[in-house]
Amino acid sequence: MSEGTEQAAPAGERGVRIVVEYCEPCGFESTYLELANAVKEEYPDIEIESKLGGKGAFEIEINGQLVFSKLENGGFPYEKDLIEAIRRARNGEPLEKITNSRPPCVIL
């Protein structure tokens, strides 16, 4: 028997949909693009979508559940924390809100 070249998704792995709502006039699009690129690098099959949000917003939902809010935390999420949340969602584990945040960049 010859070995197949197709790889099946690991058992129990689930589809993940991410929505990032951000304030475009605030200049947060570049932060969204950086995060989206990091996510796609780690998980090329992830569906990630952006939508314009209110003033100061940078909110991240995974499968409809809010996992990060700049309005609550005052900063942006660390990529490693978002990657971990995605890993948990793919494995069907409960999602926890990301509470660590890095301060927004300030140009003086």
From TrEMBL:
It is a lipid-anchor. GO terms for biological process: apoptotic process; negative regulation of apoptotic process; positive regulation of filopodium assembly. One of its GO terms (cellular component) is cytosol. Its main location: membrane. InterPro entries: Selenoprotein_Rdx-typ (IPR011893), SelW_related (IPR051441), Thioredoxin-like_sf (IPR036249). It is found in: Cell membrane; Cytoplasm, Cytosol. Signal peptide: none annotated. PANTHER family: MIGRATION AND INVASION ENHANCER 1, SELENOPROTEIN W. Interacts with GPX1. This is Migration and invasion enhancer 1.
